[in-house]
């Protein structure tokens, strides 16, 4: 069965998805008001884990109003989805569109794949950032013709909201970014005072809207961080409900040790 971009009609509008069970009848009040769009003949897969079911999807004012038998309901447009799947948008759990979204806010490279939500910020996050980091990464910004006018995640999110965005976005705060803010790119260990600074950056980023702490421990300068440093940072994210996501130190001969480290960080930082 082909899965096409038709299902993008669903989550790209936003709003509540599949507000009614497949076995229920469509709300007669909702039908009498009419719809902007009704999608018919599709295989509905609602993301709950249930098998696909047949139904008609009524959309009004950019939101899914109801699902059921809408054959007699007035509408402005009918879309025939025969042979296609109608589903919520997909979630990209490791996207890297935080900068390209500033170039093309509609993000067609995601939308045309059916991705309507992205989680980003693997190790390096778009913020926090300082002038030294901007200078070191200048080639990348120049390639995209972007001038960073933010230093915190709060300021970055505000820029997105001002310009508009084609998908939903969430970001980790990157342990690498936090380390670079305080220690630069050198192979050094933080003093107790510097570690406190780094913890404060994680805490502020979580308050700004980060969903947790991420680490990408195979890419310099991230490997310079010892386990205790990561536990201290992850502990700050844990206090504000965050999770820890890791690209482990090894995916080869040292993989068992890398798994052990990830488990230890989760256990000692009290973080999922």
Summarize the entry for a quick read.
With 272 residues, the protein is α/β, with parallel strands linked by helices. It has helices spanning 8-11, 28-33, 100-103, 108-111, 131-136, 138-144, 153-163, 175-183, 192-208, 227-239, 255-269, and strands at 35-44, 53-60, 63-68, 75-80, 85-86, 90-92, 115-120, 168-171, 173-174, 212-216, 243-247.
Largest sheet: 5 strands, mixed
Euclidean distance between termini CA atoms: 37 Å
Q: What is the radius of gyration computed over CA atoms, rounded to a whole number of angstroms?
A: 23 Å
Number of helices: 11
Strand element count: 11
Written account of the structure:
The protein is of the alpha/beta class and 272 residues long. It is 35% helix and 21% strand. It contains 11 helices and 11 strands. It has helices at 8-11, 28-33, 100-103, 108-111, 131-136, 138-144, 153-163, 175-183, 192-208, 227-239, 255-269, and strands spanning 35-44, 53-60, 63-68, 75-80, 85-86, 90-92, 115-120, 168-171, 173-174, 212-216, 243-247.
């Amino acid at each position: 069965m082909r899965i096409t971009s038709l299902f993008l009609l669903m989550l790209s509008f936003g709003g509540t998805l599949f507000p009614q069970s497949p076995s229920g009848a469509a709300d007669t009040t909702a039908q009498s008001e009419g719809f902007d769009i009704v999608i018919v003949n599709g295989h509905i897969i609602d993301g709950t884990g249930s098998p696909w079911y047949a139904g008609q999807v009524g959309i009004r004012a950019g939101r899914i109003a109801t699902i059921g038998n809408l054959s007699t309901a007035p509408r402005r447009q009918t879309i025939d989805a025969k042979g296609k799947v109608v589903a919520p948008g997909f979630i990209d759990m490791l996207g890297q569109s935080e900068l390209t979204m500033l170039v093309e806010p509609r993000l067609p490279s995601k939308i045309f794949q059916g991705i309507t939500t992205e989680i980003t910020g693997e190790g390096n996050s778009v913020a926090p950032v300082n002038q030294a980091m901007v200078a070191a990464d200048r080639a990348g910004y120049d390639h995209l013709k972007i001038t960073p006018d933010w230093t915190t995640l709060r300021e970055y999110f505000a820029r997105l909201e001002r310009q508009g965005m084609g998908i939903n976005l969430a970001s980790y705060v990157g342990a690498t970014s936090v380390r670079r803010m305080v220690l630069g790119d050198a192979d050094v260990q933080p003093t107790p005072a510097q570690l406190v600074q780094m913890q404060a950056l994680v805490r502020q980023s979580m308050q700004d809207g980060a969903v947790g702490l991420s680490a990408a421990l195979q890419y310099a300068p991230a490997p310079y961080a010892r386990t205790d440093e990561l536990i201290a940072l992850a502990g700050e994210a844990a206090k504000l409900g965050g999770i820890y996501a890791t690209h482990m130190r090894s995916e080869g001969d040292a993989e068992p040790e890398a798994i052990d480290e990830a488990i230890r960080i989760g256990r000692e930082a009290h973080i999922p």
